Amino acid sequence: MQLLEERIQTAGQVLGENILKVDSFLTHQVDTNLMKEIGQTFAQTFKEAGITKVVTIEASGIAPALYTAEALEVPMIFAKKSKNITMTEGILTAQVYSFTKQVTSQVSIAEKFLSSDDKILIVDDFLANGQAAKGLIEIIEQAGAKVEAVGIVIEKSFQDGRQVLEEAGHQVLSLARIDRFQDGQVVFRQADL
Ligand code: G4P
């Protein structure tokens, strides 16, 4: 997605070896016009797929997932990272290890929001090692629902997330694919959408 790549080039900051800071339009302040384009791009791709829900994980996945769900006219569910006092029963959970943050967290979705009739599109902001998406898939499959595909805003293709998900039989579609960071600049490879 050209508009997204241009924004990453102009507003993204490369931090250290492998981190891209995109807090001016995606992970902190959110550019709603860009999110709308992102949502419409995913929705266009999956409009014939019979998607019933879009699933993401808090916090930064929520913006692109919400605009995608709106464009597909389906609900959006975000997995929670901490236990909410109102989530008292019927919770589906998975353990997610973050290599970036080096912590394991439990993510959860209330059982009542997923059913075996659901066809799910997962949307997330970053794909690094694929552990967040893997946890979401685990939860969705516990509910007997089907994961149609995983839609990613920014894939860091030099990490093994795509491989992990594809080897588990899932389709990954990314709007921007980062091949490498070179002299503080982002070098892209051909994106999926
Ligand atoms: P994985 O899910 O693909 O295995 O990724 P990993 O555990 O390595 O990433 C953990 C968190 O760090 C995720 O956010 C992910 O979105 C974020 N992240 C990974 N690489 C980058 C990067 O290059 N830049 C930025 N800005 N974020 C990155 P999270 O823990 O779910 O937190 P949040 O959504 O609440 O911010």
Automatic annotation (TrEMBL):
An annotated GO BP: purine ribonucleoside salvage
Keyword presence, Transferase: yes
Keywords: Cytoplasm, Glycosyltransferase, Purine salvage, Transferase
InterPro entries: PRTase-like, PRTase_dom, Pur/Pyrimidine_PRTase, Xanthine_PRibTrfase
Positions annotated to bind 5-phospho-alpha-D-ribose 1-diphosphate: A128, N129, G130, Q131, A132
Subcellular location: Cytoplasm
Family listed: Belongs to the purine/pyrimidine phosphoribosyltransferase family. Xpt subfamily.
Quaternary state and interactors: Homodimer.
GO cellular component, as recorded: cytoplasm
Binding annotation for xanthine: L20, T27, K156
Pfam families linked: Pribosyltran
Entry EC number(s): 2.4.2.22
Functional note: Converts the preformed base xanthine, a product of nucleic acid breakdown, to xanthosine 5'-monophosphate (XMP), so it can be reused for RNA or DNA synthesis.
PANTHER family: HYPOXANTHINE/GUANINE PHOSPHORIBOSYLTRANSFERASE, XANTHINE PHOSPHORIBOSYLTRANSFERASE
Phosphoribosyltransferase domain sequence ranges: 33-150
Reaction it catalyzes: XMP + diphosphate = xanthine + 5-phospho-alpha-D-ribose 1-diphosphate
Molecular function in Gene Ontology: xanthine phosphoribosyltransferase activity
Annotated NCBIfam families: PRK09219.1, XPRTase
Name this polypeptide is given: Xanthine phosphoribosyltransferase
Superkingdom of origin organism: Bacteria
